[in-house]
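Before surveying the methods themselves, let us examine one representative protein, written as a sequence plus integers encoding its fold.
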Amino acid sequence: MERDDEAFGEARGEGCSIVMAQMDWHDRISVNPRVLVGKPVIKGTRIAVEHILGVLAAGWSHAQVLGSYPGLSEEDILACLAYAQGVVEQERVFPVS
């Protein structure tokens, strides 16, 4: 199967590696102790990032999420994923003896 390198954001020049732009979730996710006891939510809503991640993990498509929550955008879903990626990236596990 042939692919269109430009469609995949392939970098030109040094090495040809795929470039993935990291979304800045800070514009779309907020944490406020007065909203859902401080759980991260999509700004302007009471929809928890945890909930969106849960339905995606359960197999919902982005279209199904957007159809069920018409106030959300594709960027909101991507912000939830970027937030989760950042949390996992910072996770550290230490051995306990």
In short: The chain is about 35% helix and 5% strand. The CA atoms of residues 62 and 68 lie 10 Å apart. Strands lie at 29-30, 41-42.
